[in-house]
Specification:
By secondary structure, the protein is mainly α. Helix content is about 60%, strand content about 5%. The protein binds arginine (ARG). The site of arginine has 9 residues, from helix 7.
Length: about 475
């Protein structure tokens, strides 16, 4: 080796500029891949043994050494060195320091290019699984609340204007649908993450008689990548994970926006519980919905990370380029952010109190049963467009008189349409309105309870058989 301690130092005469060393190092952030790196190295070493490329003594020393290194890292005794650039070379040189020449043989038939791709796939697979487990806990909390609020009436909005009454359970299940699709998206993404690049070496494959299937099986991959150039270079699985995460954060951000509104005294629909709110240093009366606000804010960084990763990839020719090192910080930040948000949300939800009376009072304002009146007229054989026009006039009259729809007398209603009978007052109630929407996907309490129970069953099964 030349005058420096680099594992690649052979062809160099001068040593690396210290600024370059700092610029080039990734160990400060990629050391979080140590576990995957060690598991990948052990699988690789065992495969080299089974293919007759390394001796059993060497492989035994390698595996023992790596296990010791894992322990040192976990006990925070390991000396990470920036001059060794990355997690791979830090571990490999520590191994050689421990076990001598056997350590130098570990890199036979592989490259850091297939090594990092392997590490990152293993890491994201693990993080995807724990994200999905946490998501299941959050979804369960939502669905539990939906069950108890299946017949709670609240205003449903379009354009943020009161539109039609809905049940609170229905609204909560809408959130669950969003999160359920996020879960499904992650599961789809998992299939494309779980493919082994190991053995593709630097870019072209290796001249050793390796067994790629063997390492894939040992590392729990479902198949091996079909093209070595693609396998060492593309980070679409990183982008896809981040895209799934961005969808999730957009959903959490929308939910957050509603929680912020609902907990404001102007709405007063919910109490978020003291444990997950903060006060103001100046205004003694304040109780702020910080979890919701911070989550809404954090969606920005996950979306930003996705843009960073897409931009990072778009100009890269085949095959591996060092640009790819820049994928770590954004994707790690995304992983940390989504897990934090999901967990805080899951912890907060069971403490949310629904203020049923306030929700119902709000649903009673804004003429939200006007559509029910129009539908009633249609049932009396009036074409829908005419019915719409008639009800529009009734609402305008009610606004002028300061009346709710059900406070208008039958005689007054007859001024607008003589097809209206006494039975109209049933359809004008909030309960009648929601109960009438009694089909799959509708807001009727019976349907909501049914949907919540079905969702709950699915989530229970998922929780007891995690991937
Ligand atoms: N730190 C690098 C990355 O994140 C590891 C692979 C480096 N390969 C190389 N030939 N320098 O992609």
């Amino acid at each position: 080796m030349s005058g420096q301690n680099k594992l690649w130092g052979g062809r160099f005469e001068a040593s690396t500029d210290s600024m370059m060393e700092q610029f080039s190092q990734s160990v400060q952030f990629d050391k979080r891949l140590y576990n995957e790196d060690i598991n990948g190295s052990m699988a690789h070493a065992r495969m080299l043994l089974s293919c007759g490329i390394l001796s059993s003594e060497d492989v035994e020393s390698i595996c023992q050494g790596l296990e010791q290194i894992r322990g040192e890292i976990e006990r925070d005794e390991f000396q990470w060195s920036n001059s060794l650039e990355d997690v791979h070379m830090n571990i490999e040189s520590a191994l050689t320091a421990k076990v001598g020449d056997a350590g130098k043989k570990l890199h036979t038939g592989r490259s850091r290019n297939d090594q990092i791709a392997t590490d990152l796939r293993l890491y994201l697979r693990g993080q995807l699984d724990s994200t999905c487990q946490a998501l299941t806990v959050l979804q369960t909390a939502l669905v539990d609340l939906a069950k108890s609020e299946a017949s709670t009436i609240m205003p449903g909005f379009t354009h943020m204007q009161p539109a039609q009454p809905v049940t609170c359970g229905h609204h909560l299940l809408a959130w669950n649908e969003m999160l359920e699709r996020d879960y499904q998206r992650f599961q789809e993404c998992r299939k494309r993450i779980n493919i082994s690049p190991l053995g593709c070496a630097a870019l072209a494959g290796t001249s050793y008689p390796i067994d790629r299937e063997m390492t894939a099986v040992e590392l729990g991959f479902s198949s091996v990548s079909a093209n070595s150039l693609d396998a060492v270079s593309d980070r679409d699985f990183v982008m896809e994970f981040n895209a799934c995460a961005a969808f999730l954060m957009v959903h959490l951000s929308r939910i957050s926006e509603e929680l912020v509104l609902w907990s404001s005294p102007a709405f007063d629909f919910i109490d978020l519980g003291d444990a997950f709110c903060t006060g103001s240093s100046i205004m003694p009366q304040k109780k702020n919905p910080d979890v919701a606000e911070i989550t809404r804010g954090k969606s920005a960084r996950v979306i930003g990370n996705l843009v960073a990763l897409l931009t990072l990839m778009k100009g890269q020719p085949l095959s591996y380029n060092r640009d790819n090192q820049e994928d770590k910080e954004p994707i790690f930040d995304t992983v940390d952010t989504i897990q934090l948000c999901i967990r805080v949300y899951a912890a907060m939800f069971p403490g949310v109190t629904i203020k049923r009376d306030n929700m119902k009072k709000a649903a009673a304002t804004g003429y939200s049963t006007a559509t029910d009146l129009a539908d009633y007229l249609v049932r009396k054989n009036i074409p829908f467009r005419d019915a719409h026009e008639i009800v529009g006039k009734v609402v305008s009259f009610a606004i002028q008189q300061g009346l709710a729809l059900e406070q208008i007398t039958l005689a007054q209603l007859h001024e607008f349409c003589d097809a209206i009978d006494e039975d109209v007052f049933e359809v004008l109630t909030l309960e009648g309105s929601v109960a009438a929407r009694n089909h799959i996907g509708g807001t009727a309490p019976d349907r909501v309870l049914e949907a919540a129970q079905a969702a709950g069953k699915l989530l229970d099964a998922r929780a007891s058989h995690p991937v």
